[in-house]
Amino acid sequence: MPELVFFSGTMDCGKSTLALQIEHNRSARGLQGMIFTRNDRAGAGKLSSRLGLVTEAVEAAEEFDFYAYLVDHLSRGGRCDYVIADEAQFLAPEQIDQLARVVDDLELDVFAFGITTDFRSKLFPGSQRLVELADRVEVLQVEALCWCGARATHNARTVGGVMVVEGAQVVVGDVDGGDEVGYEVLCRRHHRRRMTAATARAAALSPDVLPVEPSEPPTAGPPVSAPLTARS
Question: Which parts of the sequence are annotated with region: Disordered (predicted)?
Fold first, then answer.
């Protein structure tokens, strides 16, 4: 039976790479899929991986109707055996409903890829709806790591390396933000403490945490007189 599958994880865990791998494996067997994305780092109409792989995709803007688009495509004699939707966290809940209808009414497998929570640890509406509707939710097993080496579970937004917790939910950036808006994956402890790799390095260089120079040894006091002995 066709399924709606949601592949989720933090940034840097290989979601887009897996999407490209699924496309490659299925196309190699003669199947034809439709690829959709929104706000990809490579620009409109692209699905890209941080490994450098890129393929063409249909940009699913805010008013885009997945079900209507695919019905029109099939009605015109086009072929579609499966659907890939990357950056699914940016989709509206109504668009997730459309993807579910594609599975149920058009009987096509839909593979959606996205992060679950935003930089404030709040669910994206699209991801929340996917969790509610998906036949399966697969948490990717390629673990992204926090700067401390622990498993990264949270996404942080940074400006100049400093973590911020206010602002619009969707601001496109990358993990190499520099002085611009960027993103970093952190473990829960360091996300709660708002400690990014940059602020951790700054703390390590702070004079307050450097070893204190040993103080001068105390000066020797006056010699202690030898005890007097009784004379006969």
Answer: 206-232
